[in-house]
Amino acid sequence: MSEIPRGVAPSILSANFARLGDDVQLLLDAGARTIHFDVMDGHFVPPITIGADVAKAIAPAVHAAGAILDVHLMVERPERHVEAFVEAGADRILCQVEATPNIAFAVKAIREAGRSPGVVINPGTPVEAVTDLVDDVDVVLCMTVNPGWGGQRFLPGSPAKIARLKALVGDRAVIEVDGGVDAGTVGACARAGAEIFVAGSAIYGAADPVAAFREISEAALYG
Ligand code: DX5
Ligand code: ZN
After folding, report:
1. Residue 131, SS3?
2. Which CATH superfamily is domain 7-222 in?
3. How far apart are CA 147 and CA 218, in angstroms?
């Protein structure tokens, strides 16, 4: 799985959508190799955000930089949307295990489309939920807030949960974390076994997003 980029993944949920291309390019130029893209449907989570047409609009710049587009589907029945995001240029598609009884089907559809599958567990979902999926995915994402909004506080029990997940997953998949990640919380995630760190408001909400990206990246390595 050496092709999976590790490190900090800026979440464009906290970007300025009126100048989304510029906000994405800023972080690609700073060295980000994963751009995290949050899709919400107003059902699985209360808000509605952005969909495949917006993914398609930013995918060329992401790929031109040698980076990947990491699509996090916070939608009911994610298997119904796999094809649209594949066509839009998604590289990794992450499905919430809580969102469908057909999670294995969704994972298979992503793999068969030639893209990288991942599964996501909410804070209330035990790590054992991925036991029978881990051999079929590249990434397991552990939510460190309840999904739905940027800017929430990192749940303090998260590092212990990440460690339990790492014990279960081993080297069979890469662990990603998402929610409340900043320079103060990323180190504990890394020490617990996470290797991909989604950060939204801590980057795009900062006065200097590039400096914030660098600071969080350093804290992931040394913090
Ligand atoms: C939340 C989303 C996150 C969000 C994280 O439901 O899945 O990706 O952008 O935002 P921060 O980093 O501000 O917690
Ligand atoms: Zn996300």
Report:
1. coil
2. Aldolase class I (3.20.20.70)
3. 26
pLDDT at 1 over 70: no
Residues 6+ positions from 123 with CB-CB distance below 8 Å:
143, 144, 145, 146, 155, 157, 158, 161
Task: Report the C-alpha gap between 46 and 100 in whole angstroms.
Answer: 17
What pLDDT is recorded for position 112? 98
What is residue 181's three-state secondary structure? coil
Sheet strand arrangement including 34-40: 7-10, 196-199, 174-178, 139-143, 116-121, 92-96, 68-74, 34-40
92 Cβ closer than 6 Å to some ligand 1 atom: no
Q: Where are the alpha helices (DSSP H) in 67-173?
A: 82-88, 103-112, 158-169
For the Cβ of 193 lying below 6 angstroms from any atom of ligand 1, the answer is no
Residues composing the chain: 223
Pocket test for ligand 1, best of 20, 141, 149, 176 (most atoms within 8 A of CB): 149
* Model pLDDT, residue 128: 98
- Mark the residues whose beta carbon lies below 5 A from ion ligand 2: 38, 72, 178
What is the Å distance from ligand 1's center to 12 Cα?
A: 9
pTM flag (> 0.85)? yes
**Tens digits of residue pLDDT in 74-108:** 999 999 999 999 999 999 999 999 999 999 999 99
The band of 223, judged by pLDDT with boundaries at 50, 70 and 90, is confident
Q: How far apart are CA 58 and CA 11, in angstroms?
A: 13
